[in-house]
Write a structure and sequence with these properties.
254 residues; alpha/beta; TIM Barrel; 7-stranded parallel barrel; two-stranded antiparallel ribbon; 10 strands; 39% helix
């Protein structure tokens, strides 16, 4: 396995942990006005990314802040795509203003889960992103339909795994409504991240060992003790000789 790994976190969601997490992570997925975030929070985070050398990405989701974008909404596809475009236009405009390249898109919450499960839906979403900027990478849940969709539309790809989310035997995330979906045991989270970095393996809830090529690990900022957990993960990885740095995306075939 590569001796490099990326640590990413979802920022701009009003959790009060952004500045501390920016000292730990190497990539920041910035909420851009859908489930959370607005122009001032986007600008604040982008400026810190610029000062600290953190890679910046957009984190769009269903425009449903009351439910934090974690519920699937039935709507015409054109309406959903318009929401995504608006969020990406906002964060890209501010990124240009601040002078920070916007490197990737990571979908949030219910939108991310739906594209991980439904290939045709994911292709429609990613084709819209590709039409806006064909150089924009997708931070995608490894072994999911997101990966297949990114390849289908020709977007650069960064494979992702989650530090503190339980996995099904199929390699998808256990729904947050299920008990144990979020892992709070710090030692278990640290051990999982080290195993992924060194051996490319994750363990599902039933004990199934999942192979993963993910080289970006998501550290959530909306769970208790998130900053301490992120620091413990980084310290453990560096203790194993793993360098924390953004990963170059897999480029689409010409």
């Amino acid at each position: 396995m590569s001796r490099f790994i990326d640590l990413n976190a979802d920022l701009g969601e009003g959790m009060g942990t952004d500045d501390d997490l920016l000292e730990v992570i190497s990539s920041a997925s910035i909420a851009c006005g859908g489930h959370a975030g607005d122009a001032p929070t986007i600008r604040h985070i982008l400026r810190h990314c610029k000062n600290r050398g953190v890679r910046a990405g957009a984190h769009p989701g269903y425009a449903d802040p009351k439910r934090f974008g974690r519920f699937r909404i039935v709507m015409p596809l054109d309406q959903l795509l318009s929401q995504i475009r608006s969020q990406l236009f906002l964060v890209r405009f501010i990124a240009d203003e601040v002078g920070v390249p916007l490197s990737y898109v990571k979908l949030h919450g219910a939108l991310a889960n739906q594209t991980a499960e439904e290939l045709a839906f994911a292709v429609g979403i990613f084709a819209t992103i590709q039409a806006m900027d064909a150089r924009m990478a997708v931070l995608a849940l490894d072994n999911s339909q997101q990966v297949r969709a990114a390849k289908a539309v020709g977007l650069p790809l960064i494979r992702e795994a989650y530090a503190d989310r339980a996995y099904t035997p199929e390699g998808l995330l256990v729904p947050r409504s299920a008990e144990g979906a979020v892992i709070h045991d710090m030692d278990a989270v640290v051990a999982r991240c080290v195993r992924l970095a060194l051996h490319g393996e994750l363990v599902a809830v039933d004990g199934t060992v999942l192979k993963s090529a993910a080289r970006s690990i998501c550290l959530h900022g909306d769970t208790p003790g998130a900053v301490d957990m992120a620091r413990e993960v980084r310290d453990a990885l560096e203790g194993e000789g793993i360098t924390i740095a953004p990963q170059n995306p897999e480029m689409p075939l010409a």
